[in-house]
């Protein structure tokens, strides 16, 4: 399989790959690209550009796209469940349930975003503002790095990617290198314009450090303790 950067299926610029192993059989399922710092730079650059266009779409348009995404997931849910079972090692019943959660979570975030209103502050609430009506609106952060742990990859994908997209952000998806295949298949959706928004990079610990230089929001800083400490130390040093 290949990574997806700027809506295109690509290999690593280094040409390096690593194997995804079935934990039950010890056999290789698939080989995936091993991302380099240069690959991440390309993904970040494309995400910044794509986010500006994505942010121009209305909340209802974004919701429609996510609902179409769910329809395609439903059409391929058994294939996705079998992939998740093979690469993750969880029983097929649990894999099917986790894939089924996509059709619950994505619509839920899509519909919630439609009612995520701004705030109106009446006149006189603050001293000196007796005649001023203040309106607080919500704006996208920009690019969100969605770091996905190995244990519930699809559930965490739902909880990070769906709200990020619905609020007008771009999302760079960084799956666990133990089991990236299901998320790569989810992201490889050629029928949707969503491909310009989500980017797939095969995860290694240093990828987190590289991304932290650029992105202003992390979906999860607990993927690896030393990476979390590195991010904190960097923030502390300005």
Per-chain topology:
Elements lengths: L2 E3 L2 E3 L6 E5 L6 E6 L3 H18 L4 H17 L1 H12 L3 H22 L5 E3 L12 E3 L6 E5 L5 H14 L3 E5 L6 H7 L10 E3 L4 H8 L4 E2 L6 H12 L2
Parallel strand pairs: 7-8, 7-10, 8-9
Antiparallel strand pairs: 1-2, 3-4, 5-6
Estimate percent helicity: 40-55%
Radius of gyration: 19 Å
Strand order of the largest sheet: 9-8-7-10
Portion in strands: 15-25%
Can you walk me through this structure?
The chain has 238 residues and is α/β, with parallel strands linked by helices. Helices cover 46% and strands 16% of the residues. A 4-stranded parallel β-sheet has the order 9-8-7-10, sandwiched between helices. It has a two-stranded antiparallel ribbon with strand order 1-2. The chain has a two-stranded antiparallel sheet with strand order 3-4. Helix 3 packs antiparallel against helix 6. The longest helix is centred in the middle third of the chain and has 22 residues. The chain is elongated, with a radius of gyration of 19 Å. The chain starts with a strand and ends with a helix.
